[in-house]
Specification:
With 446 residues, the chain is mainly α. The protein contains 17 helices and 2 strands. The chain has a two-stranded antiparallel sheet with strand order 1-2. It is globular, with a radius of gyration of 22 Å.
Length: 446
């Protein structure tokens, strides 16, 4: 379907459809994020492979560079966005089938292969998806709109997370084979729900993006972004926040299961349910602040609050489980501010503009290239430290210190460095919002 064939839709219809699609995407993300690490544990993956799994979403992100060039040069933004994401989600059916497609000795290879192919497809569609979404949602609404959308995602995470944790505990009690079968079924359901997300977006308009037919070269689309000082500072922030957080997810889960000795339900609630509830409240608060304060001021304040977002997990033991967890939730409340502010800044960079040839997807692709490099380093670094220190442990003031804790405190230091780059940004978000909103509404009316 070409952009001209898309039926006209009102802004309210577009936003509603985007939110419904986001609900299905949230189901996909909630299940895969919760189940993948447990799936790997059930298949007895070594610690370094968990580092590889953490690195894969980043290592494959370099696919966004040629994808961005192709969209800017040849067009087809909507088709690339939809098919890239559909294939990404469909490949999780293959991930779910790994224990039945590969012999046991090669389970790790099958998991890495299909997860890697899935992420590659996702990254092919990402520049087009982000630039398209920037055109669909007017600038004046983005803070509140994506806050509302983030709240929807958190509600799905809470409800699904608790159900998934309960189901994993029941399946584990029934034996290894039952647990493996249940985990595979969950990943298959996630894949199907994720594909619905893209199908719902198939009728959304893409009226404004036009390819460059003037002999555009690959380097040409990156000249404008790299001349922007605020964008360069944004890349620096992105690099170090990715390095700080890229490896954290799997090792928090492993810390809770292997060190704290929680149940699957407790671990799922702590990593998905409780943190999602805290960030749900944060979304409501920070969404308005992004629109009122702009991105830089919001990122500076919230950036201080999330410094210890990883290191506070050390306070969770069997004796201090819920008291320690309350400290973790403080950072979870502040994290949506960074998510919303950084996302809105990238949308502002990447939107199509009526009177110039802004290479919107290039901002997304360059950001993703930085994420690819530093995310890969993060995952490999996390896996290396985990493998190196897997048998080392000590105790300080009654708290167990393991390789997980070492990684958590390294993350805190890297978050401080990331925050320094925010100081170099110019926050022109508010000054541009009225002009950009007028342009967006004019395009909608046209």
């Amino acid at each position: 379907m070409t952009p001209d064939e898309s039926p006209p839709m009102r802004l309210s219809q577009i936003l509603v459809r985007l939110n419904v699609a986001a609900g299905f995407a949230a189901v996909f993300t909630a299940i895969t994020a919760t189940v993948l690490t447990r799936f790997g544990q059930t298949m007895a993956l070594p610690p370094f492979v968990f580092g590889l799994l953490a690195a894969l979403p980043y290592a494959t992100a370099l696919a966004q560079i040629p994808a961005s060039f192709a969209v800017e040069r040849f067009g087809g933004r909507k088709r690339v966005a939809i098919f890239g994401i559909i294939i990404h989600r469909a490949l999780w059916l293959a991930v779910a089938a790994v224990p039945w497609l590969f012999p046991r000795a090669w389970w790790w290879f099958g998991l890495i292969l299909f997860v890697g192919l899935s992420y590659t497809s996702a990254h092919i569609g990402t520049p087009a998806t982000t630039s398209w979404a920037a055109d669909l949602v007017p600038a004046r609404l983005r803070g509140r709109y994506y806050a509302l959308r983030g709240q929807l995602v958190r509600v799905v995470n809470i409800l699904l997370g608790l159900g998934i944790g309960w189901a994993m505990d029941r399946a584990q009690a029934a034996g290894f084979q039952t647990l493996l079968l249940v985990l595979s079924a969950m990943l298959a359901v996630a894949a199907l729900a994720g594909m619905v997300d893209s199908l719902l977006c198939a009728k959304l308009p893409d009226r404004w993006h036009r390819p460059r037919a003037d002999g555009l070269r690959l380097r040409d689309i990156f000249l404008v972004p790299l001349a922007n000082r605020t964008f360069l500072c944004f890349l620096g922030y992105t690099a170090f926040i990715t390095l700080a957080t890229g490896y954290i997810g799997p090792f928090v889960w492993l810390f809770l299961i292997d060190v704290v000795k929680t149940t699957n339900l407790e671990a799922t609630f702590m990593t998905m349910g409780g943190t999602a509830l805290a960030s749900l409240l944060g979304m409501r608060y920070w969404g308005r602040k992004v629109d009122e304060w702009g991105t830089r001021r919001t990122m500076l304040l919230a950036g201080v609050l999330i410094i210890n977002g990883a290191s506070t997990w050390v306070f969770i033991t069997q004796e201090t489980k819920w008291l320690g967890y309350s400290i973790v939730l403080f950072s979870s409340f502040a994290w949506p501010a960074m998510e919303l502010a950084a996302g809105n800044l990238l949308y502002a960079f990447s939107e199509s503009r009526k009177n110039d040839a802004n290479p919107g997807t290039a901002y997304v692709a360059l950001t993703s290239a930085v994420v690819a490099i530093f995310g890969t380093l993060s995952g490999l670094f996390g896996g290396w430290i985990a493998q190196l220190l897997q048998h080392w442990h000590t105790t300080i003031a009654g708290f167990p210190i393991t390789f997980h804790v070492v990684l958590f405190f390294i993350s805190a230091g890297l978050r401080i460095i990331a925050l320094l780059f925010v100081l170099g940004m110019r926050d022109d978000r508010r000054h541009r919002s009225t002009r950009t909103s007028a342009q967006s509404m004019e395009r909608m009316a046209g």
